[in-house]
Design a protein that fits this description.
Length: 207
């Protein structure tokens, strides 16, 4: 009887992540004791704004030297995603936060912008989870997809984008290449290749 080979379980593929920092005109103060050695190994100046981002490409062993990223990595007409922290609007009621209609404004209704009933009494004798109510509004992570790059000013490190971006005018954002745009381009390329193959195999076929 032949013994079957035991299959080894596949190891989960680890995503490559790298640390990215924004070098500003004003020198940053390094607060933690671990960060001075971190910047010294990478041979880069200390930064105040740091983010960990996912890197794409082939996996390389060992530590990769620090590289400088600027607005020149983007091209005119390219689609990008912009991630930022939206503006906080404080504690808001249900009309502004969840677009409740509210009650009548006249004829002494006495019910204008109140939330109303939040559940039954005897059954289930509790408030159902997910009940929309008043609370803090805004101030979260917001991603705007598929914004078009109008112009890249590499000399002044500027990126002119068509459309609105999240956050205050003095806020920090993360700009990445559009994920939906890449999927759409890949889908269009596959469809074009399939159309060419069909046309080659069936010369008499007409669309």
């Amino acid at each position: 009887m032949r013994r079957r080979r035991r299959r080894r379980p596949r190891r989960p593929t680890a995503t490559k992540r790298c640390s990215s920092g924004l070098v500003e005109d004003t020198p940053a103060k390094v607060e933690q004791a671990d960060w001075p050695g971190h910047f010294k190994k990478a041979n880069v100046p200390p930064t105040r704004v740091r983010r960990e981002v996912e890197a794409r490409g082939r996996r390389r062993r060992g530590r990769r030297p620090a590289i400088r990223c600027s607005s020149s990595i983007f091209a005119n007409g390219e689609r990008v995603d912009i991630i930022g922290t939206g503006r906080g609007k404080g504690f808001q009621g249900v009309v502004k936060r969840h677009h409740f209609a509210g009650g009548a404004a006249t004829h002494g209704s006495m019910f204008h912008r109140a939330p109303g009933s939040i559940g039954a009494s005897s059954f289930p004798s509790r408030v159902v989870k997910g009940m929309r109510a008043a609370g803090r509004m805004g101030g979260g992570r917001v991603t705007i997809h598929n914004l078009k790059v109008l112009r890249v000013d590499a000399d002044n490190h500027l990126l002119i984008v068509e459309g609105g971006i999240p956050g205050a005018p003095s806020g920090y954002v993360i700009v990445r290449k559009a994920v939906d745009g890449q999927e759409a381009q890949g889908r269009a390329g596959r469809e074009a290749e399939e159309g060419q193959e069909v046309g080659q195999t069936e010369p008499g076929w007409k669309q």
